[in-house]
Design brief:
Elements: H1 7-13, E1 18-21, E2 24-27, H2 34-40, E3 64-71, E4 77-80, E5 85-86, E6 97-99, H3 103-117, H4 134-142, E7 158-160, E8 165-168, H5 177-184, E9 191-194, E10 201-204, H6 217-221, E11 227-229, E12 242-247, E13 256-262, E14 265-271, H7 284-288, E15 303-304, H8 315-333, E16 335-340, H9 346-359, E17 364-367, E18 377-378, E19 384-385, H10 393-402, E20 407-408, H11 410-419, E21 423-429, H12 439-445, E22 454-459, E23 471-474, E24 483-486, E25 492-495, H13 508-520, H14 529-536, H15 544-547, E26 549-550
Parallel strand pairs: 1-6, 16-17, 16-21, 17-20, 21-22, 22-23, 25-26
Antiparallel strand pairs: 1-2, 3-4, 3-5, 3-6, 7-8, 8-11, 9-10, 12-13, 13-14, 15-23, 18-19, 24-25
Helix pairs in contact: 3-4, 8-13, 9-10, 9-13, 11-12
């Protein structure tokens, strides 16, 4: 009897296709190019023009390889292709054998590098791309030791092509990544290729600057030092920077980013690839919107109303007095209200809510104002700029609702504060990058010397009520603490602390823990984001904080291929 296997079952039992690259076998999925298979297996094939988020043009030619493939017309015997083929454009096929280290492939790599360096200026010491430049890396690995070019180099001008980007034309290798980005991802097409041959250059169309909402991404995808960030220009050498994985703390997008910093100072934000959320891109709003972190007007010391002003040298005493004043005032206040900012992490919301419930089990709890600016804007490449300018409105509400009781929005909270005279204590949190207290909200809070309502404010920047509250605690921004944000699509993502809080600021969760310990007469614990998520997950409604939080991947240490000689 013949048994016919259904097509689906047959495909499930079919072995994965396999290719061999430089002697190492690798399985792959249909539709992958040879270059993609190699990169997935962490095998380096040099490339300039290829980028996973852009179309394939195969114009840099450095990824050419020698490929042998089974010939079905010759009993499947391996035969070489008649010439070198671009691995970025050639699809992987079962049984192929690829060599990027053969004499032919190596000769091509050296020839391409020699051609690219003919007119390239030797200005690595002053180039901002030094240390993260593919041209530097490939010149060391695949280039010649000496240049044979003796003629005069062709010079290209430096151009200011937009509010954020400078173009150093003589460093450009014409990979056209930037041109394809403005056509395929943003759809704005400001950049073009002008001229032919050795006189080709990247330029903007006449009268049209590179000024779209994603313009800074051309800096990231440029493999050399041709497109540079005005904001980062000559600010820091990249090998001094520490890169910390984080999440967008300005909008509701949840974009994956890297915070690059040195000695407690943030120098730039870069995108981290996440195909499900931000692909390979971030908006200029996120890229440049972090400057409030180092605002000179930030709160740096706690303040107690009508108390003695303390200097930085007396920070410990100032914190002790502020904690005691807040603990005494909130304990005597009776009915309590808590407004948790949507700029805070889920862990911050958890500890603040526990503090409020410990003081008053019937405390009124609400979410602070959620800023909006216009409407969502989608781009042809699949990236969307979110109109909601708060990173965690959904996560804060999720945590507060899990602890029981109704959770008010900002308007309902404002009305409740205005109408309910029984609320004798108020805890307010801010952490917004700009002014957020409206005149009507300030009036509803009823703060000031003539008010009987005891008010505690946890915030980063001065606002309309910061000088009228009873106790002010200076808090850290999202890059100064660890936690979890829930984006507009309901995805929970953890982020790590990049820098220490400036001066004597602390995270909102830490302040809440210290206040609760002071009220209950218990020893103070140090905030830990992982331990907090584990405690949160004991609630059925918050189990996702153990099983459903996306954690940042840990970068592996890269061993240098530079030979060190002990002297």
């Amino acid at each position: 009897m013949t048994v016919h296997c259904p097509p689906a079952a047959a495909s499930m039992n079919r072995p994965m296709p396999r290719i061999t690259i430089n002697g190492r076998p690798a399985e792959f999925d249909d539709g992958q190019s040879i270059l993609e298979v190699a990169l997935a297996q962490e095998q380096e094939i040099p490339h300039y023009c290829w980028h996973p988020g852009l179309s394939v043009v195969a114009n840099c030619r450095i990824c050419l390889a020698e490929v042998w493939a089974p010939n079905p017309r010759n009993e499947g015997k391996l035969e070489p292709m008649p010439k070198l083929v671009p691995t970025c454009q050639t699809m992987a096929q079962d049984g192929q054998v690829v060599y990027t280290d053969s004499p032919k492939a190596v000769a091509n790599q050296r020839a391409v590098m020699e051609m690219l360096l003919i007119n390239h200026p030797v200005d690595c010491p002053v180039c901002d791309q030094a240390g993260e430049c593919y041209l530097q890396d490939y010149a060391y690995r695949y280039g010649r030791a000496n240049s044979r070019f003796e003629e005069e180099k062709i010079k290209q001008p430096k151009k200011d092509i937009g509010p954020h980007v400078l173009l150093y034309g003589d460093r450009c290798i014409m990979c056209t990544r930037c041109v394809r980005f403005t056509r395929e991802v943003t759809g704005t097409a400001e950049l073009m290729v002008e001229g032919r041959g050795a006189f080709e250059e990247i330029d903007v169309f006449p009268g049209q600057a590179l000024d779209n909402e994603l313009s800074g991404n051309v800096i990231d995808i440029c493999p050399v030092g041709a497109l540079l960030d005005k904001d980062f220009l000559f600010a820091q050498r990249v090998w001094y920077l520490t890169r910390t994985p984080s999440i967008d703390g300005i909008t509701a997008s949840g974009d994956n980013i890297s915070v690059e910093h040195n000695d407690g100072t943030v120098f730039r934000l870069k995108p981290r690839p996440n195909s499900a959320i931000n692909k390979w891109w971030i908006s200029d709003e996120i890229r440049y919107g972090w400057k409030f972190i180092h605002d000179e007007n930030r709160h740096r010391l706690p303040v107690v109303a009508s108390g003695e002003n303390r200097s930085m040298e007396q920070a410990g005493r100032a914190w002790d007095e502020a904690l005691q004043a807040a603990a005494d005032g909130l304990s005597r206040a009776g009915h309590l209200a808590l407004m948790v900012s949507p700029m805070l992490s889920c862990e911050d919301a958890w500890h603040l809510a526990h503090l409020a419930r410990a003081i008053d089990p019937d405390a009124v709890i609400g979410v602070g104002p959620v800023p909006f600016d216009g409407e969502d804007k989608a781009f042809p490449g699949g990236y969307t700029i979110r109109a909601e300018k708060a990173p965690n409105a959904r996560g804060v509400r999720r945590v507060l609702e899990a602890l029981g009781g109704s959770v008010l929005d900002a308007n309902a909270m404002e009305a409740k504060l205005e109408s309910d005279a029984s609320i004798g204590g108020l805890i307010i949190t801010g952490n917004y990058p700009s002014q957020w207290v409206t005149p009507s909200m300030a009036a509803a809070m009823k703060v000031g010397s003539d008010s009987s309502r005891f008010t505690v404010l946890l915030d980063t920047l001065p606002n309309a009520v910061s000088e009228q509250v009873d106790v002010l605690f200076p808090t850290g921004t999202w890059v100064e603490k660890a936690g979890t944000f829930e984006n507009v699509d309901g995805v929970l993502q953890a982020f790590e602390q990049a820098i220490e809080p400036i001066d004597y600021c602390k995270g909102e969760a830490q302040v809440a823990m210290e206040l609760l310990a002071r009220i209950q007469g218990q020893p103070v614990s140090r905030f830990n984001a992982v331990a907090t998520r584990q405690a949160m997950a004991t609630h059925a409604a918050l189990e996702r904080f153990v099983s459903g939080v996306s954690l940042p991947s840990v970068a592996r240490d890269v061993e240098s291929d530079m030979q060190l000689v002990e002297l």
